[in-house]
Structure formats: structure tokens, C-alpha cells
Amino acid sequence: xxxxxxxxxxxxxxxxxxxxxxxxxxxxxxxxxxxxxxxxxxxxxxxxxxxxxxxxxxxxxxxxxxxxxxxxxxxxxxxxxxxxxxxxxxxxxxxxxxxxxxxxxxxxxxxxxxxxxxxxxxxxxxxxxxxxxxxxxxxxxxxxxxxxxxxxxxxxxxxxxxxxxxxxxxxxxxxxxxxxxxxxxxxxxxxxxxxxxxxxxxxxxxxxxxxxxxxxxxxxxxxxxxxxxxxxxxxxxxxxxxxxxxxxxxxxxxxxxxxxxxxxxxxxxxx
Length: 271
What we know:
Elements: H1 2-24, H2 46-51, H3 59-63, H4 66-84, H5 90-116, H6 119-145, H7 149-161, H8 172-194, H9 201-219, H10 236-270
Helix pairs in contact: 1-5, 1-6, 4-5, 4-10, 5-6, 5-10, 6-7, 6-8, 6-10, 9-10
């Protein structure tokens, strides 16, 4: 159990380190990012400002990032249990581990972006989002077509390199993210076609709704306060992050259902 867990951890660590190198080397400083409070609707109430430290300007948008790490740790523990009981294979456990280590890494990265409001941390936050979504495609293809190290390498390399679109277009990140979301849905659909099970229906629908909420609520962040001042306290950006955390949870549930279906099919074949 421990070797595959460590291998997954190193996979995410090395990939993140490569992205960090290019970000802090300055090669992507021309990329457009949204920095400054003007890009966020959340404003701490006067009462909170009297008790919170000055650097905590958006408390909810900051605290929500603990959700990524907590959820990632939870699913790492769940899969460690399943793997330890030989309920899933090493390859399947590796796919789960990588995805959830990404969640554990993403929370602190997003939090540092919010707290520092620095351009390079905003770049890092955007960039690491892309392989996160690409892994859903890789995961789905692994279930539908079998594991391929070459496919994983090519998909990861294309995902990381797609961020170069930000050097040519102000909406380069949005273009890349949209393509990644479509690929993720396609990968999930391929996996479901191979190992269809009713237990995957609800998680798939909930993941799609959460993904939609993640995108739409983020886009509406600055517009929602026009509807009601409540959305300057509980902002669209904060709610989009709640939807994002839920998306990760339901993606895990979806792939767990398909993985168990795969194990059942393989067991029946061997009997």
C-alpha cells in the first residue's frame, strides 16, 4: 500500500514543482490574472474587521480552501482502506491517490493566492487547475481502455503546455479550462459506457451540477451583489468554491462506483 501512495504523492509533487519553476522563473508574467479586491465581491463586515487581522480581507474565500485539503485527506483514507482490503487494484488506487493529493495541494495554493493577492500566485493557482481536470480524463480512459503510461505522460504534458495560451490571449486560461472540462466529461462518459452501473448515476449528475455551479457562480461573483447585499458577505466566488469541493467529492464517488463495477466484472470473468 505504502509504495503506491508514495508514488502518487511524488507524481503530484514533481508536476507541481515543474509548474512552480516556470511560474517563479518569470516566463509567464505576461499572463493575465485577476488581482486586487476589485475582482472579488466579498467584503468583510465592519464587525468582523474589528476582530480579524488586517491581512484576512476575505475570510470566507480564505477558509473555504481548507475544504479541499480536508476532502482530499478523507478520500485518501477511504481509498487506503479499500486498497488495504484488496477491494481495488494498485492502478485504481494510484488514480484515486493522485486525484486526491491534487486536492490537498490545491487548497493551500488557492489560499496563498487569496492571502497574498500576488500575480505569480494567481498564475500558479490557474495553472495547477488544468492537470486537475485532465486527470479526470486520464482516469476515465484508464477504466475504459486500460492503463497506459504513454497516454498519461502525453495528456499531462499537453495539459501543462496548454497554459501557454495565456501568453497570447487574455482569456487563454478560460479557453484551456473549457477544453479540460469537456475532456473530463468525455473521459467520465467513456468509463461509464464501459462499466455502467446505477450507483454512478447520482454522483455523475451531482458532479455535473457542481461543475456548472463552479463556473457560473464564479462568473456571477461581481453581479450577484446587485441582486442583494448578502452576496458581498457570502459571495459568488465563495459559493463557486463550495461547488468545486462538492465536485471533487462526487467525482470520487462516481469513479468508486465504476471501479467496484469493474472489479465485479473481472471477478465474474475469472470464475
